[in-house]
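Recall that a protein's primary structure is simply its ordered list of amino acids. Everything else, from secondary elements to tertiary packing, is in principle encoded there. The following example makes that idea concrete.
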Amino acid sequence: MEKGDRYEIIKPLLIWKKIQKFSDIFKFIPKSPVAENLGKEKGRFDELIKSPCGLTFGKVDKLCTLFKLTIDEMASLIEPQCSIDKKIDRKKQDVRYEIIGPVFKEKLIKSFEDILKYSPKSVIEEDHGKKGDRLDYLLNNIGEFPVKDLFVIATLCELTLAEIFGLVKAQYKNEDKS
């Protein structure tokens, strides 16, 4: 296999279920060139392979391009390796999160920022443990949003990682254009 073709095997391996989680990719391709493409030091990239929730959305998007995967396909590989540090207590959860899933399914939420129309930023900040300044920064630089944080927000909103990635991707495209 020629060097330039090495990433083309990922999609067929995913389709044939030879790859079922992010770390499986690196059974078939070397990690050093991928780490280099992402601008990551090899040791740090080894950590990200074990726990891809440490990636930022911008890096996930770059991996999608590199491996020729959709954002949904990449989410399907990352989600099995994601976990939440603390258990989410649905009884204590703000009721406004329950709005997000149905409103999303009705296509009234088209980007990540649209979530804030239904669940105020202050609620997300409190439940998510992010200070207002940090959340504002991430909302304005959506590519820097850590996957781990997106996973928590997705879980609170009863969305899948693929669904939240789709919302972030819509906002990320608009951010790139401006």
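Residues 128 and 158 are 14 Å apart (CA to CA). The chain has ten helices and no strands.
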